[in-house]
Design a protein that fits this description.
The protein is built from six helices and seven strands, in the order ααβααββββαββα. The protein is an alpha+beta fold. The strands form two sheets. The chain has a four-stranded antiparallel beta sheet. A three-stranded antiparallel beta sheet has the order 5-6-7. Helix 3 packs antiparallel against helix 4 (74-93). It starts with 13 loop residues before the first helix and ends with a helix.
């Protein structure tokens, strides 16, 4: 499976589909990306914190040691420019897919990480939203399983989608754990 396509659709199975039939393409999960509000929120936080750091790094040395030292503000500004691009790449890498028996969560730019959470293993599904997330109209879904290492989170969802996902995952988890 290729997970790095920019449109989040993946292209796995298309090369082999010509010889193997169209069945392999239908088996691919339908990936859902995160809404752009998460990217806006993270970029705003980046600008606020690094903007304050650039102001302090330029103003304090400039006043105390001379105007040439005010150039030290360029380092936080360079980090801000780099972070702007990295945040978008990271945001594009997050996606999730609901399958018949499990939930897939994929993320990561350099190191891809794909988490598979079987519905029957879910013990708790939480929807959380901090003050900054609420301001941007976002919520996160956190899945808890018996193993602490397999807890998974889907950040930056629309609150209605987060509640829908929570209700669906809870329903499927109860059905799978009951053996239905």
């Amino acid at each position: 499976m290729e997970t790095g396509s920019p449109d989040h659709t993946g292209t796995a199975g298309t090369a082999g589909a010509a010889g193997a039939g169209a069945g392999t393409v239908a088996d691919e999960p339908v990936w859902t990306g995160l809404p752009p509000g998460l990217l806006r929120m993270r970029r705003l936080l980046l600008v606020v914190w690094l903007g304050l750091l650039a102001l302090a790094a330029g103003l304090l040395p400039g006043l105390l040691a001379g105007p040439v030292w005010a150039l030290s503000a360029l380092l936080p500004l360079a980090v801000l420019a780099w972070g702007w691009v990295v945040l978008e790449r990271n945001w594009r890498s997050w996606r999730y897919a609901e399958r018949a028996d499990d939930l897939l969560i994929s993320r990561g730019v350099l190191w891809r990480e794909e988490t598979v959470v079987p519905y029957g293993r879910m013990q708790l599904v939480e929807v959380t939203s901090g003050p900054v997330e609420r301001y941007f109209g976002l919520a996160s879904v956190q899945l808890h399983t018996a193993a602490a290492a397999t807890d998974a989170t889907i950040p930056g969802l629309d609150p209605a989608e987060a509640e829908r996902l929570r209700d669906r995952l809870t329903e499927l988890g109860e059905a799978r754990s009951a053996g239905l």
